[in-house]
Amino acid sequence: MKLKLDLHDIYNSGPEIEKALQRVFDEAVAKKAPMIEIIPGKGTGQLKKHVLRFLEQKRSSAKNMRVEKPSKNFGTIKVHFNWNEPGRR
Questions:
Q1: DSSP code per residue over the chain
Q2: Per-residue pLDDT band at 85 (split at 50, 70, 90)
Q3: pLDDT by residue (tens digit) across 21-76?
């Protein structure tokens, strides 16, 4: 099960972006989803930077998380979780 979050509709609302990111992150943890695909779009790159800062804050609580920034699709960020790693949450 892959979770997907498209941020195009709320790109200019900082608090809504934070809520949407937190909601999908919490859902991934609760369902032990293997991946979240976040679509900030291409634009100027500011929204993508915002998403990456959010994920960097979350890295301390989810050490089994890997962030992928596909070079062929600049407008997406993929967050992979490895729930089977021993000693991890």
A1: -EEEEE-GGGTT-HHHHHHHHHHHHHHHHHHT-SEEEEE--STTSHHHHHHHHHHHHHTTT-TTEEEE--SS-TT-EEEEE-TTSTT--
A2: low
A3: 999 999 998 999 999 999 998 777 888 899 999 998 876 566 688 999 887 777 89
- DSSP lists the bridge partners of residue 2 as 35
What type of residue is 33? A
Tokens, residue 38: 């976040």
- Nearest alpha carbon to residue 39 among 15, 64, 20, 63: 20
State the Cα–Cα distance between residues 43 and 48, nearest whole angstrom: 9
pTM for the complete prediction?
A: 0.82
Angle at 14 between CA 17 and CA 82, to 5 degrees: 35
Ramachandran quadrant class, 6 (left: phi over 0; alpha: psi -120 to 50; beta: rest):
beta
* Predicted confidence band of residue 6 (pLDDT cuts 50, 70, 90): very high
